[in-house]
Amino acid sequence: MAGAGGGGNDVQWCFSQVKGAIDDDVAEADIISTVEFNHSGELLATGDKGGRVVIFQQELESKNQPQCRGEYNVYSTFQSHEPEFDYLKSLEIEEKINKIRWLPQKNAAQFLLSTNDKTIKLWKISERDKRPEGYNLKEEDGRYRDPTTVTTLRVPVFHPMDLMVEASPRRVFANAHTYHINSISVNSDCETYLSADDLRINLWNLEITDRSFNIVDIKPANMEELTEVITAAEFHPNQCNTFVYSSSKGTIRLCDMRASALCDQHSKLFEEPEDPSNRSFFSEIISSISDVKFSHSGRYMMTRDYLTVKIWDLNMESRPVETYQVHEYLRSKLCSLYENDCIFDKFECCWNGNDSVVMTGSYNNFFRMFDRGYRQDVTLEASRESSKPRSVLKPRKVCTGGKRKKDEISVDSLDFNKKILHTAWHPQDNIIAVATTNNLYIFQDRL
Amino acid sequence: MSEEIEGTKTTEETVVNDQNAAWLSDNSDSPLAVLKEMDDKVTSPEKVEEAKLKARYPNLGHKPGGSDLLRKRLTKGQKYFDSGDYNMAKAKVKNKQLPAATSEKSGGGEITGDHIPTPQDLPQRKPSLVASKLAG
């Protein structure tokens, strides 16, 4: 059962940092809605319900303390999206950032895509640490000099200045989605990306904003016949022709863009057979997939539904190869969870760098890690109580019935308002970012 | 804990209990029949929860994953009468969140959204957007 930690027998997770306000009165705008490391792990981006993006940068390891990993400090922050009003439908378009995806770095600048329900934006984050001084026609404060006073010419010279990090929107990809965007995914070709809403998936070129190709359309001719919606989509990590999308009915479809321009016909359909005698009112709701993520290797994919995490081998469509119970004790609470809408919470999941451990969130600010190799799992908590620097996180346990042991928490005491929906794992190291409602926790393994 | 490829436990339990149920159904008055009822309920926690829900909401539709639920999902968001209605509502929210700023700018703390604004009432410029507390 709960060993020292996920990631093998020897990993112990320690508190590193926490970002955000301590007060319990959380403004809606401060609710974190997405967390994402960039491809090197040096940058960590968060998006919130207020449409803001905050990027943290890892400090270089100091030579004095080679054993300590660098801390993440604020690098840049900007307002990505603003609230808008859809005049045709008289509906508000929320500024909440649904997803952030980094582009692989090609030059000195960093690029990321951020999206709300309707519009995707490409942001360029660049550093400026020099400024030119000694212009001939301008004073230092920018006023123009009287040309008649110029008697000699000089060459402007670059002088160092305090580092300035600038974020500027380079592309705005708008008006391509009738329904709410739930996913964006950059292709391995680094030229295109997809955006998915409830019923359609579009393919974009990063350079072109006035045109987008529709590659999946599951909208029925008659909306009364609607039975499922798209819940997540992702490009394969190294096959630029392949992508997958998950549905509210618990199926995943893999599509090959070489097969046809419109990929309504899937190449593979991943679905676990269900025992019809077990079917209940809740079956379809809890089978709805809230997140799908390819492994770094591209051989596997992971899906998250309300109660489980499943690992699928792309070569086998009939059933997952591994199934992990996240919080099975909630199965006997489904009625209340339906009434308070928690049953519709969309949990995300993530892989570690070498695909040996997977992680996902739960309630009561708990998050779970499953070690695929050692067949171990652990429950940890992101809380202010365990926030002393470098303190080791103690595994938590939920008591499902009968006698509650000391340090265990009973199912009825769980706080369902404290949910961890978004987590991210550093691409190489054992550093994780866990978002509670309005705080970002960073944990790392004890070195 | 992880399960590999084998069926879920609930399936096995269901099969066994159905067999019991068949045997017990002949003696509907006996104490064993009571046990049979308890057995059925114990079988699936999901079905127990479903029964609870149906008891509380007898009019709940029979197609839970069907059109109603999905359509609610597709049209999430509060509907306003028009853009004027939307802007008035936003003004009310902004005034509540930044009371100090408003009273400075609109000369006397008058709240837009409750009456037709005059040029004197409107703020001179959009209030500064509050920075994220994560960056603090």
Automatic annotation (TrEMBL), chain A:
Family: Belongs to the phosphatase 2A regulatory subunit B family.
Organism: Oncorhynchus mykiss
PANTHER family on file: PROTEIN PHOSPHATASE PP2A REGULATORY SUBUNIT B (PTHR11871)
Keyword Repeat on entry: yes
UniProt keyword annotations, A-Z: Repeat, WD repeat
GO cellular component: protein phosphatase type 2A complex
Superkingdom in the source lineage: Eukaryota
Annotated GO MF terms: protein phosphatase regulator activity
Complex and partners: PP2A consists of a common heterodimeric core enzyme, composed of a 36 kDa catalytic subunit (subunit C) and a 65 kDa constant regulatory subunit (PR65 or subunit A), that associates with a variety of regulatory subunits.
Keyword Repeat: yes
Official protein name in the record: Serine/threonine-protein phosphatase 2A 55 kDa regulatory subunit B
UniProtKB/TrEMBL annotation, chain B:
One Pfam family named in its UniProt record: Endosulfine
This protein's record includes keyword Magnesium: no
Listed InterPro entries: Endosulphine
Keywords: Cell cycle, Cell division, Cytoplasm, Mitosis, Phosphoprotein, Protein phosphatase inhibitor
GO molecular function, one term: protein phosphatase inhibitor activity
GO terms under cellular component: cytoplasm
Compositionally biased residues, Polar residues: 16-28
Domain of life: Eukaryota
Residue ranges with Basic and acidic residues bias: 1-12
Biological role: Protein phosphatase inhibitor that specifically inhibits protein phosphatase 2A (PP2A) during mitosis.
The protein's name: cAMP-regulated phosphoprotein 19
